[in-house]
UniProtKB/TrEMBL annotation:
Cellular component aspect of the GO annotation: membrane
Keyword Secreted: no
Pfam families in alphabetical order: HATPase_c, HisKA_3
Keyword Kinase (UniProt): yes
Name of this chain's protein: histidine kinase
Coiled-coil annotated residue ranges, if any: none
InterPro entries, per the entry: HATPase_C_sf (IPR036890), HATPase_dom (IPR003594), Sensor_HK_TwoCompSys (IPR050482), Sig_transdc_His_kin_sub3_dim/P (IPR011712)
A Gene Ontology molecular function term of the record: ATP binding
Organism: Prosthecobacter vanneervenii
C-alpha cells in the first residue's frame, strides 16, 4: 500500500507497534505485581482480622455476651473476600459462624473440616496460622484464644478467604490501566503524525516540488525558509542550479559567438567567392561563340548552380549569424524565418507580431529567435504542414510565442533519441526561465500548437 511507503507512516507505525508491545508487557508485569500485592494485602488483612476478632471474642466470651460475638461475626461476613468464618472450642463445636446453618455443629461437618484437622495443633501452641492453598485461591486463618480465664478453655477463630473476586478486580484494574495507556499511546501517535507532517513531510514534498520544477525548467528554484537540514538542502540545490544556469548561459553564448563567427566567415569569404565565380561563369558563357552551343549551355548550368549555391550559402550564413536582430530587430529576424520556411519547405507562413523589444535584452532576443527557428524548422521537417503561423504577444507578466500549424502532432522521441536541436531548445528555455506547452485543437481541421511563455522579469 502507498500509505506504508512514506517515512512519516513508517515512523508512526513503528512507534505504535513498539508502544503496543510495551503496553502488553507492562500489562503482564503490572498484573503480576498487583496480584502479588493483593495476596500480600489479603494475607496481612486476614492476620489482622483474625487477631482482632480473636481478642474481641475472648473479651466477649468472658463477659458472656454471645449476641455481641454473633454481631462481630456478621461484620466479618460483610467482606466480599470472606468465604466462611467459624468460632470453635477445643472439642470442635461451632459456637459462632458467619453462616447460620453451621451454628452449633461440629467443625468436622463444615467445609473447614480439612483445615481444622491440618491446623488443630494451633490450640496447643496458641500461635496463629495463616496459610494459602497450592493454587493461591483460598486463604485459611486460624487464631486461638481463651474463652474464660482458665488456660484449658481454649477456642479458635477459623476464617477462609476466597481470592477469586479480588484477583478478578486486579485483572480488571490492570486491563483498565492498559486501556488508558493505549489511549495515551494512540493520542501520542496522532500527535507524532501531525508533527512529522508539519515539520518533515510537507517540507519534503515542497523540496520534491522544487526539484521537479527545476528539472522542468520553470525558473530558478525556490529556497525553503528556516535553518533545518531541508532548508540547507534547498539552498545548496538552488545555488547549484544557479551555477549550472550560469554555465549553460556561458556555453550558449560561446556557441552563439562561434555561430556568428562561422556565419560571418561564410558570408564574407565563401559567399563572395561563389558570387565571383558565378560572374566569371556568366562572362565565359557570353564569350563562347554560338557554334559552341553545347559548351555555352554547360557554362550556363554552372552559372545557375553557382547562383543556387550562393543563395544556400547566404541562407546558411544568415541562420548561423542573424545580423538582422541587431540591425533591424526581432521582427525582421522572424520574417526571415518565414521566408526561409516558404522557400525551403514550400509552406504558407504568417507572422502576428507585437513589439516586445523593450522587454528583452539582445541575448534574450537571440534566444527567442533560436527557439522560434527550432520549432518552425522541426514542424516543417517532421509534421509536413501546409500552413504555419508565428505569433508573438504579451500576456499578463509573460511574453508568449506561439507556433501553430496544420501538420501531424508532435511525438516524443524514444528514450535516448533526443536530437541536439531538442537539447539546445531545452537549454535555451531554461536560460530564459521559459516553459514550453504543446496542445492541439480539433475541428474541421486539426491544428498543433506550441506555446512558449517567457517571464517579463527574466534578465
Amino acid at each position: 500500500m502507498i500509505f506504508f511507503r512514506s517515512i512519516q507512516s513508517r515512523i508512526t507505525l513503528s512507534v505504535l507497534l513498539f508502544g503496543l508491545l510495551m503496553i502488553l508487557f507492562n500489562n503482564w508485569r503490572n498484573k503480576d505485581w498487583l496480584t502479588e500485592r493483593q495476596i500480600e494485602r489479603m494475607t496481612q488483612e486476614a492476620a489482622d482480622t483474625g487477631s482482632r476478632l480473636a481478642g474481641l471474642l475472648q473479651h466477649l466470651s468472658r463477659k458472656q455476651q454471645e449476641r455481641a460475638a454473633e454481631l462481630e461475626m456478621s461484620y466479618v461476613s460483610l467482606s466480599p473476600d470472606v468465604d466462611l468464618g467459624l468460632v470453635c472450642n477445643k472439642e470442635g463445636q461451632v459456637t459462632c459462624a458467619t453462616h447460620m446453618q453451621w451454628y452449633h455443629m461440629n467443625v468436622q461437618q463444615t467445609p473447614l473440616a480439612e483445615e481444622w484437622r491440618q491446623h488443630s495443633s494451633v490450640l496447643t501452641s496458641m500461635e496463629p496460622a495463616v496459610e494459602w492453598d497450592s493454587e493461591q485461591k483460598n486463604l485459611f486463618v486460624m487464631v486461638p484464644f481463651f474463652e474464660t480465664y482458665e488456660t484449658t478453655s481454649r477456642a479458635a477463630v477459623l476464617i477462609r478467604y476466597n481470592s477469586t473476586l479480588a484477583l478478578e478486580r486486579v485483572s480488571e484494574e490492570a486491563w483498565h490501566e492498559s486501556v488508558r495507556q493505549a489511549a495515551v499511546l494512540l493520542g501520542s501517535c496522532m500527535l507524532l503524525w501531525f508533527v512529522l507532517d508539519e515539520l518533515v513531510t510537507r517540507r519534503v514534498r515542497k523540496v520534491v516540488d522544487i526539484l521537479r520544477d527545476a528539472s522542468s525548467g520553470k525558473g530558478p528554484p525556490e529556497v525553503l525558509k528556516g535553518k533545518d537540514e531541508l532548508s540547507l538542502i534547498s539552498r545548496e540545490f538552488a545555488g547549484t542550479m544557479e551555477k549550472l544556469r550560469i554555465a549553460e548561459n556561458m556555453v550558449l553564448e560561446a556557441a552563439e559567438q562561434e555561430r556568428r563567427k562561422i556565419g560571418k566567415d561564410v558570408h564574407d569569404d565563401l559567399c563572395q567567392r561563389l558570387s565571383a565565380t558565378k560572374m566569371k561563369a556568366e562572362v565565359m558563357r557570353g564569350m563562347i561563340k554560338d557554334s559552341e552551343g553545347k559548351i555555352a549551355s554547360l557554362a550556363g548550368q554552372v552559372a545557375d548552380e553557382l547562383s543556387e549555391s550562393t543563395v544556400i550559402a547566404r541562407s546558411m550564413a544568415w541562420g548561423l549569424a542573424p545580423v538582422s536582430i541587431e540591425k533591424h530587430g526581432l521582427k525582421d529576424a522572424l520574417e526571415n524565418i518565414i521566408r526561409f520556411a516558404e522557400k525551403s519547405y514550400n509552406v504558407r507562413c504568417s507572422l502576428d507580431y507585437t513589439d516586445v523589444s523593450s522587454s528583452l535584452t539582445n541575448s534574450s532576443k537571440e534566444l527567442l529567435f533560436r527557439i522560434a527557428q527550432e520549432l518552425v524548422v522541426n514542424a516543417c521537417k517532421h509534421s509536413s504542414p501546409q500552413v504555419v503561423s508565428i505569433t508573438v504577444r504579451t500576456e499578463d507578466d509573460h511574453i508568449v510565442l506561439s507556433i501553430i500549424h496544420d501538420g501531424s502532432a508532435f511525438s516524443e522521441p524514444a528514450e535516448g533519441g533526443n536530437g541536439m536541436g531538442l537539447h539546445l531548445l531545452s537549454q535555451r528555455l531554461r536560460t530564459l526561465s521559459a516553459t514550453l506547452e504543446r496542445t492541439s485543437e480539433t475541428g474541421t481541421k486539426d491544428f498543433q500548437i506550441a506555446i512558449v511563455r517567457i517571464p517579463l522579469n527574466n534578465p
